Amino acid sequence: MSTRGMVILRCVCAAAMLALATTTFAADDELLWRQVDPDNLVFVELTEGRVVVELNPMFAPATVKQFRKLVRDKFYEGLAFYRVIDGFVAQGGDGSDLGQMSAVPLIDAEFEREWSEDLPYVPVQENDLFAPETGFIEGFAVGRDPKSGSVWLTHCPGVVAMARNEAADSSRTDFYIVIGQAPRYLDRNMNVFGRVIDGMEVVQRIARGDAGNNGLFSDETATTRIRHMMLASDISEEERPAAYVPDTDSKGFAALLEGRRNRTQAFFHHKPPEVLDVCQVPMAGRMTK
Amino acid sequence: MSTRGMVILRCVCAAAMLALATTTFAADDELLWRQVDPDNLVFVELTEGRVVVELNPMFAPATVKQFRKLVRDKFYEGLAFYRVIDGFVAQGGDGSDLGQMSAVPLIDAEFEREWSEDLPYVPVQENDLFAPETGFIEGFAVGRDPKSGSVWLTHCPGVVAMARNEAADSSRTDFYIVIGQAPRYLDRNMNVFGRVIDGMEVVQRIARGDAGNNGLFSDETATTRIRHMMLASDISEEERPAAYVPDTDSKGFAALLEGRRNRTQAFFHHKPPEVLDVCQVPMAGRMTK
Known about the structure:
Two copies of one chain form a homodimer.
Chain A: E1 6-8, E2 32-35, E3 41-46, E4 49-55, H1 61-72, E5 80-84, E6 89-93, E7 113-114, E8 121-126, E9 133-137, E10 140-145, E11 150-153, E12 159-162, E13 175-178, E14 191-198, H2 200-203, E15 226-231, E16 243-246, H3 251-261, E17 286-287
Antiparallel strand pairs in A: 1-2, 2-16, 3-4, 3-15, 4-14, 5-6, 6-13, 7-11, 8-9, 9-10, 10-11, 12-13, 12-14, 16-17
């Protein structure tokens, strides 16, 4: 389904802990990194800097198809993040979600997909607040319900999803990026189609709107704008930056999860419960440039 | 224990929902706002803007006492956020946490406190991943263990806590602000002593350090600096901005929690589980200037 060039980089547990409580792994538990398929890699140039998004056609094929087309049509260039609520979402696009006219077709709901035994599922947690089970599939945090046989992308920080109106099939162009504590109540209700793998610190600099007006701006000139969007596969191979993300199928990733679930360091005077929030696993990628 | 000037402001559910799915409350469920005691109110002027912190002497009396003294001594002025990890924490201070010499006394551990029936506890959730129960006490998110009889401030985004080395009693001056998905595994392990009530969008602009080096900076000039810190009670009454935070003891707050726990709007084609993450409740305050 995707090009899976593998590369081994040393696992530096950058985001793992405060001060002394870092974890080290044995060599055979080394974290592997997966190269992101250039067809699923989007560079978003904001006035604040570059953001890199990985698309997920496995969970949202129709949304990804439309988004790729909009990117290639330069649809988003010059548009603003027009609804930005600190701790929640930064929403950008042409404002068709606000009821403005748009010639862009609507997208069918793809809120979840059918479970299949051959999905490369890495379990994280049972008894999560919002899902019977959580885990990862090819780098994306997922929720899973074995009873209903469905699986879905969870609303973790950095997730990219289509906004919509009340109707399930009313997504079109406007998208949001989660910038705060995971709003998991939106799971299974939105077309989640990607995640930020680099530049979340840039996303966090997107100007916030008026908290008293649902994050909208009274002054349009105060918004952060999208300068360019480009699909990596539309850039020549020599000029194209490559993106690597933690390979959630590797032994090293399993060891990382276990180290976060079961914290045995002397730093912890109160040993935390042996649980793990799927949205609190550091998943930042690495770019070659 | 604290000055509790009450004021009624209209509840605008700014951070509550996407698009159409806002909640409205009946008039008698109106959210009340509590004025923050000026002795517990700190203005932190960064190179990026103003951040407002509410201190919590109820849970961390020794830490608050030392922090107030350091603020009054202008200890933090000019110091940097020297360890900043996107999605985790921004840590600032004199670097004594890194082993540098410091004449400032150490602070005893105050990771949790004894439960008491007269605490103004507002329950949110049982069966949270990291605590038998969660709730709020005077605006602060807490975890609670009825069996051990203890209660503690939880690591939600915006929480302010003292860094430390391995020993429990090794906090001193360096503090961190949580800037990402709640690192709840740190609960009951750190001196949490405050929360950001205004300016989280400023906190999110703090420059990130080197992800490959545990968030430290290779170039010190790239750090965000603390320009001033000032206790509100040290500012004359006429010049002092007042801060209001959602009054978690009000009926309106209970209604807000219920609206977030039980989402009945037509927007939700899949009704979310009737649960509520205590760290996903919008708690931003309001300033008079």
